[in-house]
Amino acid sequence: MVGIDVIQDFFPTKIHALITNRQGGFSSLNFKSLNLGLMSGDSVKLVKKNRSIIREYLESDIVWMNQTHSSDVSFISKYSSFVNADGIITRNSELACAVLTADCLPILFCSSDAELIGSIHAGWKGLSSGILENFFKKIVSENFFSFNNPNSKHLFYFWFGPCICKNCYEVGDEVKTKFSILDQNYDEFFEPAYNKWYFDMQSLAVYKTRIFFNSQEKYVIKIKVDNRCTYEDDKTFFSYRRDGKTGRMASVIITDK
């Protein structure tokens, strides 16, 4: 379907996941055409029409986040059209979890039994303030799973979507310093760029994920990385760093009915 790329050959068969692109919507100018960001400056009416395309395709209600680069994670038990969070989790198979991006990193998650799904919005602010760790702690500490067999383990799937790549993402000393203070191992994800730094945001997020779950005896993970760059591909992706006033893509996950 135009405007929708299904994420294939990774998630369990009961899971349906997708990422949208710029094609097949109603918006124009810088927002052309499948802009899904209500706060982007585009016509709210057109964005809602664009969102209806995704809802009709999935035949499901979609939970959209009001993303503020926070470290807030919410568990959603029933439909809400507007959640103040940068990470959401649900066990409700009637709901789809969405994340909006235009250079930041979208992450989709599910458990191997497809009982638990979620989405994460990860920019440098969220990554430095603990959005991933808060999400991970929530899924392993909320008693979502029973361990009747002491040797049993649960398998989690994490998909890391397209974002601005290292070669296009220059940041200042203040960004690098925030991460260096947290852990000097994070320095390896920065390379000198004249008076700034190239930042490999996606690789850092994958590293954080592996480090966290290496310490979890009852959970194992599978990871898939889509390393396309949102800045480089202006035909497919919106990019805030490239265009300034622009639209948003959505990455969405749902349990098949």
Description:
- The protein is of the alpha/beta class and 257 residues long.
- It has one domain: CNF1/YfiH-like putative cysteine hydrolases, CATH 3.60.140.10.
- 23% of the residues lie in helices and 29% in strands.
- The strands form four sheets. Strands 5-7-10-9-11-15 form a six-stranded mixed β-sheet. It has a five-stranded mixed β-sheet with strand order 1-2-16-8-3. It has a three-stranded antiparallel β-sheet with strand order 12-14-13.
- A hairpin with an 8-residue loop joins strand 1 and strand 2.
CATH topology: CNF1/YfiH-like putative cysteine hydrolases
Uncertain regions spanning at least 5 consecutive residues: none
Q: What is the overall shape?
A: globular
Number of strands: 16
Straight-line N-to-C gap: 20 Å
Q: Which H/E pattern describes the elements?
A: EEHEEEEEEEEHHEEHEEHEHE
The biggest beta sheet is recorded as:
6 strands, mixed
Average per-residue pLDDT, rounded, comes to: 96
State the helical fraction. Answer: 10-25%
Number of helices: 6
* Radius of gyration using CA atoms only: 18 Å
CATH superfamily: CNF1/YfiH-like putative cysteine hydrolases
Tell me the count of domains.
1
What is the CATH class name? Alpha Beta
Question: Order of strands across the widest beta sheet?
Answer: 5-7-10-9-11-15
The name of the CATH architecture is: 4-Layer Sandwich
What structural category do the secondary elements indicate? alpha/beta
Beta content: 25-35%
